[in-house]
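Problem 12. The chain below contains 299 residues. Write out its predicted structure in token notation.
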Amino acid sequence: MGFVLWLVATASFFGTLRLGDPVATLAGPHATARDRIAIARFYHLDRPPVVQYGYYLANLARGDLGKSYRYRRPVADLIAERFPRTLLLGVMALAFEFVAGVAVGTLAAVRRGTRVESALLGATFVGVSTPTFLSGKLLLLALGYYAGWFPIGGYGDGFFDHVYHGLLPALVLGLLGTASLARLVRNDMVDTLQTDYVRTARAKGLTERDVVLKHALRNALLPVVTSMGLSFGLLFSGAIVTEAIFAWPGLGRLAIDAIFGFDLPVIMGTVLFASTGILAGNLVADLATAALDPRIRNE
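Solution.
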């Protein structure tokens, strides 16, 4: 994990060197030549890229992600301020993804070979194929502007207002994962419903509802746990577009503003933090799978 984070930090550092002139961004249009020299020396921007990289790694080892060029604040403070907002959006999106994906996938498996399955699979195909920037704008226009069911943007005041403002962007953020999860659940449920222990449960006289919910679905959920863990990390990348569309002040919006403002420390900090989230999601998924399946835990 540490090696992967080092690779991400290295790629983000050298990748941002091509975005623009950080001295010009820091000094502003009216700075004198002396001001530019002083700023370059203070931030070590007058040194070769390899030397700058050494300073970056040394600060990173101490937990210092640098100072934002735009906000004049430590990047770690900006991330700590924005992360709870993105976390709230991600948790809501995961909840929608889990409930809707499992329900649609289970129904498609139970109604296999019918028009219901064809309609549900067609809907999941559309969901997988539709990019977030398109579905977000369409739902914002239809449900936010015309129907007036949801706010058209912003964060709100107070926890419940935050949740209300986050419903529509969480729906958009979870649509792509819902479609993928539904297809995964459907395929696993089809295989599970054909196993011997399911046939035995039916032979004992159990209702179809108990067979599906208490026997087949429980075993089919193991791959879902892995998928949810991966989705949690990938929500950071999806949140960049979604937060920009809905003016949600989270990490995604911070990253977008940093890119357009050539705020290199913030770009590197958000990339590194998002990569950590992806790795953490994979780790949680592995631990949860081992906890749910004794066969994996005993290996």
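Discussion. The first helix runs from residue 2 to 16. Students who got a different answer should revisit the alignment rule from Section 12.3.
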